[in-house]
Amino acid sequence: MRRRLALVLLPGLLASGCATLPPARRAAAPVQVDRLLAVAASQVQRCYRAPRVSFEGRQIVTRLRVRFTGDGQLAQLPVVIAQLGLTPRNETYADRMAEAAIEAVLRCAPLRLPDGFPADRLLAFDLTFSPIAPA
User: Is 14 helix (H, G, I), strand (E, B) or coil?
Assistant: First the structure.
């Protein structure tokens, strides 16, 4: 029986916030930002295509920094900021796992952001791609 590769995608807002919300709207920021990140992560997750790699390769967790304009367009190419779970047995798969994560973001651009996000703001956050084999 063949097991399918699942993906857990965890969004995380950058510590700097990168001017995601204007100062006048920061009181509502946690709820609005959480919703915005959940929407973005959900869209990117649907665009992910797992590379054909061994079980060891599926243990690699890739973290990307992504930046979008307020209208959902990519502001710059995604950047790999970390890969966790690398071992001597799986390090040959690191590039393929990173490429799959980057391609998911590119494939899904532009994002469909929730109404009310300021079009003149930069949305910058990290996405963690953690492929796991479901039990």
Answer: coil
99-120: pLDDT as tens digits: 999 999 999 999 988 777 777 7
**Does 3.90.1150.10 match the CATH number of domain 6-132?**
no
Please state, in angstroms and rounded to a whole number, the distance separating the CA atoms of residues 38 and 98. Answer: 21
What is the spatial order of strands in the sheet that 74-84 belongs to? 6-13, 122-132, 61-69, 74-84
pTM for this predicted structure:
0.77
Cα–Cα distances (Å) from 110 to 9, 71, 92, 102, 104, in that order, read 18, 8, 31, 14, 12
pLDDT at 115: 77
